[in-house]
Amino acid sequence: MAVGQTLLSRAKSLEDKLPTYLAICRALGRREQHKEAYDMGFDVLRTLGAIPKSSIGMKIRLVKDFIYVKRFFSKQSDTNILATPLLEDKRLETILELFATVSIHSYYCGALLDYLFTIFREIVISLTKGLSRFSGVAITGYSLMCAASDDMKGAHRFSHLAQEILDMTKAREQACFQLFLATTYIRAWRDPPNEILDLYERAHKLGMQSADFENALLSQLSGFLYAMAIGHSLADVEMRCSSVMKKLRLYNIKYVLAFAEEN
Hints:
This protein is an all-alpha fold. It folds into 2 domains: 1-170, no CATH class; 173-263. It has helices at residues 2-10, 14-30, 34-48, 55-75, 78-82, 90-108, 112-129, 133-148, 152-168, 172-185, 193-209, 213-229, 234-251, 254-262.
């Protein structure tokens, strides 16, 4: 954190400070200081002019974005969406990364409207300006919203679309957690059990390859628990879970360790 503050003091413009702000937000998240990360992220987005300054302005923007996205997805096929050009504006991509980061902290803070606002802003920018690695993240969030509203057909469509975009944009850092979310909250209720186990294993490998050890081990552990739920050998699953627990303690990954101990 001290290094981040030093870099901020030396940066000449807000654009120069953006990568540092992102790094600080992530660091705050790892320390479970989600409210601080949430406040910082929204302050930066307001200063950049990327979001309305007033609460009512954000709500109006959310409604407009929601209508736009619903209409767009109803009229366009997945093939047409995947043919959207890739985003070339690096500044805008960094802003999308900030939106994606803030959405996570909004969720943890229980700020549902702000969470939805960030997701729909990301999707609208992606559909109008070009696809990026964060487009897949936002569309995964949209698929989870569909699942929460019992639109499982839409949830499956958009979870698959999100994964194709993540693959297309080579979003390795984001792919693990997004695949974990889609597998746990959408696909596990419908896809064949062996495919679910494969998806958890794929998420684990993606996370390890990108040094996302937290979500890699979360995915691996979830796969073992799922295997136990569908009738795999309890002794075998217990042995594998014990191995993951040792890794969690080694890496000191507290929130995954808490999840493991609860289950």
